[in-house]
Amino acid sequence: MTRSWDQVEEAAAAVRARCDALPETAIVLGSGLGGFADTLTDAIPMAYTDVPHWPASAIVGHAGTLVIGSVAGRRVAALSGRVHLYEGHDPATVVFGIRVMGRVGVRRVILTNAAGGINTRFAQGALMIIDDHINMQFGRSPLVGPNDERFGPRFPDMTEIYSNRLRALAHDAAKDKGIDVTHGVYVAVEGPSYETPAEIRFFRTIGADAIGMSTVAEAIAARHMGLEVLGISCISNMAAGVLPRPIDHEDVLRTTARVRGAFGALLEGIVERI
Questions:
Q1: Fewer beta carbons below 10 Å: N end or C end of the chain?
Q2: Is pLDDT above 80 for 258?
Q3: Higher pLDDT, 250 or 78
Q4: How far is CA 51 from CA 42, 56, 59, 112, 237, in A?
Q5: What's the whole-model pTM score?
Q6: Which residues pair with 134 in a beta bridge?
Q7: Where are the domains of the chain?
């Protein structure tokens, strides 16, 4: 079911009613990365199912909880889990949480994901700051269809979809905390099957460094609303054909569990500097 402006407003009002202090930053936590939400202090947890119209997450590694709390003295909203196009949702449903956060009053969004490594220089478990993306979720932009000007303009500019300021800030935070990060281009596909080796060779040829099944629609919707966007990928596995073994979602979750400490420290360092 497509989520409308009125449904977004109803959900945002429900979230605001639960908060003593509203967040200025929202962090979407990807597959296996939701543990960061447990580190928030003065936390107010809300199951997605308790927020009007919010779609429930049904994938292993996505808890389906909105937690509003504090990190480094800053109030943030952590979205532990997301829904995906491959679950059968339409694009407006996939970006519902982002639009609600925009209407709650956040000014910036940090989008995180577990991704396959296309760039052969990447190591499994690397953290990649997203410099740009390639949208291969054909015809599945959240902006397709009638435009509601209350969300944003008909033709939003995407020249700097991932904020130069936030990318530099994230790089500095990593350096200060001794965390190795890399930069690259993320390509989004619909899934849910993993890609073929031939597809990965194609994506490498067109400039992609990492691949996943999320994030891009959310980034587009956030920029449509005028929010500042930062993207971070955890390279949880090497993409098809890079290594001589099949891809398993359990490996993805094991890798994200292994880098949880560095990932959390990086997010904390970023929030400190915002």
A1: N
A2: yes
A3: 78
A4: 20, 10, 19, 22, 33
A5: 0.93
A6: 187
A7: 5-273
